[in-house]
C-alpha cells in the first residue's frame, strides 16, 4: 500500500497505523487549535485582514477541528472511526480483490484535492498581495499561515472521505466485473453481496457525522454571508467577493465528496440492470434471477442517518452554494 494512505489510517500493520495516525492527527489538530485561536483574537479587530474572509476561515477551521475529533475520538471499549473503517477495508480476504481499483481512484482523488488546495492558497496569496498596501508584512504572513493550515485540515478531511467512498465504489465495481466469472456459483455471489452491503452501511454510518459537518460548512458560509451583506448597505461587495474566492476553492472539495458519494449509490442502483444485461442471450436462469432480485431489494448504497444519499444531495448543496455566490456577484455588479 502507498505510504500516504497510512497517514489516513489505511495500513495493514495495526501498530504502525496507530502510531502514524496518532502523530498525523495530533499535528493537524494542534495546528488547527492555534489557527482558530488566532482567528478568534483577530475576529473583532477592525485593522485585521479579511473581515468577512476571517469569518469564513473561522467557520472552516471549527468544522475541520470537529471532524478530526469525530474521526479520531475513541470511547472506552470501542474503536475510533478511523480504526473501524480501516479494519473493514483492509480485510486480508477482500482487499486483494478490489485494491487495484481503489488505488486508482485514490490517486485521482488525491490529485483533485491537492489541485483545489493549491488554487485556494494561490488565490489567497494573490488577494493578500492585492491588499498589501493596507498590511504590514508580518500580519500578511501570519494570515497566510493560518489560512494554509485551515485549508490543509479541511482538504485532508475531504480527502479521507473520498478515500472511503473510493473503496466503497471499488468494491461494487469489482463485484459487477466478477459476476460473469462466478455466474454458476450463486451462493458465493450472494454471500459476497451480503458482505459488501454490510461494509457499505457500517462505513457510511461511521463517517456520516463528519460528512454532515463538511456539507453544512459551505451552506452556512453562503447563507449567513449573503444575509449579512444584504443587510449591510455600507459593505464593499467587490472586495468581499474577491476575498471569498480563495475560500470557495477549498469549499468545492465537499462537492467532490458528495459526487463520489452519489457515485457509490448510483453504482448500487445500476447493478441489477447491469447484471440483467450480462445474462442476455444465455436463457432464463432462475437462480440468477433470484440473486438479481435479492440485490435490488437490498437497496444498498451510501446511507447517512438512515437516509440514502445520491446525486440529488450534491445538486442541492451546489444550488445553494452557486445561488449565494450569484447573489453576491449580482450585488457587486450593481455597485
TrEMBL record:
Keywords: Membrane, Transmembrane, Transmembrane helix
Superkingdom classification of source: Eukaryota
Transmembrane segments: 20-40, 52-71, 113-130, 142-163, 210-231
Name of this chain's protein: Gustatory receptor
Amino acid at each position: 500500500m502507498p505510504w500516504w494512505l497510512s497517514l489516513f489510517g489505511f495500513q495493514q500493520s495495526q501498530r504502525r497505523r496507530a502510531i502514524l495516525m496518532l502523530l498525523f492527527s495530533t499535528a493537524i489538530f494542534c495546528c488547527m487549535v492555534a489557527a482558530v485561536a488566532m482567528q478568534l483574537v483577530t475576529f473583532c479587530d477592525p485593522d485585521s485582514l479579511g473581515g468577512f474572509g476571517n469569518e469564513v476561515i473561522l467557520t472552516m477551521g471549527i468544522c475541520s477541528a470537529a471532524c478530526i475529533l469525530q474521526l479520531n475520538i475513541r470511547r472506552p471499549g470501542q474503536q475510533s472511526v478511523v480504526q473501524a473503517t480501516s479494519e473493514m477495508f483492509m480485510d486480508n480476504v477482500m482487499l486483494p480483490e478490489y485494491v487495484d481499483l481503489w488505488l486508482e481512484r485514490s490517486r485521482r482523488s488525491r490529485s483533485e484535492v491537492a489541485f483545489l488546495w493549491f488554487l485556494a492558497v494561490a488565490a489567497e496569496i494573490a488577494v493578500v498581495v492585492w491588499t498589501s498596501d493596507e498590511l504590514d508584512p508580518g500580519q500578511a504572513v501570519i494570515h497566510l499561515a493560518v489560512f494554509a493550515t485551515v485549508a490543509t485540515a479541511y482538504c485532508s478531511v475531504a480527502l479521507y472521505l473520498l478515500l472511503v467512498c473510493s473503496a466503497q465504489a471499488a468494491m461494487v465495481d469489482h463485484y459487477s466485473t466478477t459476476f460473469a466469472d462466478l455466474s454458476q456459483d450463486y451462493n458465493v455471489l450472494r454471500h459476497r453481496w451480503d458482505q459488501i452491503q454490510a461494509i457499505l452501511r457500517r462505513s457510511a454510518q461511521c463517517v456520516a457525522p463528519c460528512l454532515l459537518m463538511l456539507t453544512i460548512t459551505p451552506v452556512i458560509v453562503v447563507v449567513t454571508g449573503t444575509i449579512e451583506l444584504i443587510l449591510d448597505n455600507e459593505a464593499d461587495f467587490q472586495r468581499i467577493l474577491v476575498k471569498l474566492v480563495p475560500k470557495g476553492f477549498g469549499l468545492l472539495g465537499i462537492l467532490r465528496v458528495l459526487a463520489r458519494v452519489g457515485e457509490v449509490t448510483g453504482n448500487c442502483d445500476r447493478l441489477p440492470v447491469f447484471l440483467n444485461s450480462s445474462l442476455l442471450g444465455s436463457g432464463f436462469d432462475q437462480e440468477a434471477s433470484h440473486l438479481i432480485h435479492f440485490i435490488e431489494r437490498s437497496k444498498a448504497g451510501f446511507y447517512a442517518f438512515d437516509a440514502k444519499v445520491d446525486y440529488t444531495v450534491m445538486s442541492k448543496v451546489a444550488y445553494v452554494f452557486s445561488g449565494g455566490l450569484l447573489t453576491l456577484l449580482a450585488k457587486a455588479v450593481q455597485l
